[in-house]
Amino acid sequence: MFDLIYSAPYAVTGLVFVAAFVLFSALGLLLVRPLAVKVFAPEAEWRTLTTVAFQASVSFFALLLALAALTTVENAVDARDKVSAEASAIAVLLRGVSAFPEPTRGKLEHEIASYVRYVVHESWPEQRRGKVPTGAVEIVSGIQETISGFEPKTPKDEVVLANTLSAFHGFIEARRERISATTVSLPALLKVVLTIGVLLTIAFTWFLPVQARSAHWLVSAAVAVPASLILFTIVALSYPFRGSDGISPAPYLVLLETRLPH
């Protein structure tokens, strides 16, 4: 339902998203306002009851919206941290590999470079489309085989091998965490509930006791714009890797430019 949000830069899709909710508020007000005045006018306490009910509804829904936004931002920050953690784990692995003698060192550096290039040029586009990348298994297995196939000839070589195997296991764990972050999101049901909540909150403004039609439109739009903006932010950040404005592979690009053979 929300996939179109990721089809263009957020500046574009966000504007369209908010405009749709503002249009909903304007059309609803145009259709409902005359009926609301006709139905509720005989009610002596209409103005007071409507205002109190609107304030209570908005307060409860705003709390839910705030909690969802906080959770989404925390998930996005965590995903960004996992990207940096994997890049750091690769850098640690490269330090261990640098202590190997040739030709093992050169072979491992080229294998690691192949992995990083795969992440940047193939894995990242898949993540931006909401897919879980699975194509680097052979490259990672090749790195493991090269490390395990090294035969230490001195105590120093044994220490180098042990440290590098430890660094490799750290890299594997960081890689797993980064891949798992591509599927972390708010439950779809919660997104639907939040969307319905925004629509109902906007609809509630149609029944507010505002005398002038133009002022009523402004009040309804003033509720629609921030509520839809918050909803858009929650949805956009719920998959932090998706879309052209998702998390960048910059840490891997730094490795390619500064630490790895071209």
Provide a concise account of the structure shown:
The protein has about 260 residues and is mostly helical. The chain has helices at about 10-40, 45-95, 105-130, 135-150, 155-180, 190-205, 215-240, 250-260. The longest helix is centred in the N-terminal third of the chain and has 52 residues, at about 45-95.
Roughly how many Å is the radius of gyration? Answer: 27 Å
Low-confidence runs of at least 5 consecutive residues: none
Number of helices: 8
Q: Can you summarize the main beta sheet?
A: none
What gap, in angstroms, lies between the N and C termini? 42 Å
Average residue-wise pLDDT: 87
Tell me the number of strands: 0
Measured by DSSP, the beta-strand proportion falls in: under 5%
Write the layout of secondary structure elements.
Layout lengths: L9 H31 L5 H52 L6 H25 L8 H12 L6 H27 L6 H18 L7 H26 L11 H9 L4
What does the model show?
The longest helix is centred in the N-terminal third of the chain and has 52 residues, at 46-97. By secondary structure, the protein is mostly helical. It has helices spanning 10-40, 46-97, 104-128, 137-148, 155-181, 188-205, 213-238, 250-258. The radius of gyration is 27 Å and the shape is rod-shaped.
What keywords describe this structure?
0% strand; single chain; mainly alpha; 262 residues; 8 helices
